[in-house]
Design goal:
The protein is an alpha+beta fold. The chain is built from four helices and six strands. It is globular and about 40 Å long.
Length: about 140
Amino acid sequence: MAENKTQPTDVSVEEFLAAVEHPTRRADGFELLEMMRDITGQEAVMWGPSIVGFGSYHYKYETGREGDSAAVGFSPRKGNLALYGPTYGPDADRLLPELGKHKTGAACLYVNKLDDVDRDVLAQMIRTGYQHVMEELHTS
């Protein structure tokens, strides 16, 4: 079975964020770093070259594929901020209409900038998404 390509690294999260070219994405990245650190009580770890993650859990699919992933995290991409985990919580569907301007993907929440969303709603989604992953998915 192929190993998950996105693994924790020893790269400095602060150095990664400081190198983000887009000034708004860089500032939002540092704000998300503090927000997710406060919410999760975890220190940030780089997962692969571009994902800032907090906590981890072990997954196993019915196909037999398994691995580890960050419980919640984000990536300041050129086109948007990709947030991982906030849509996992049981209240995500109820909160998404209150969030503000966003898009969703298979497992991601995409926002152009944090000023487009209600930070309190985002924090609640991160909190419940993290708790769901850590409590329901039998974390490591």
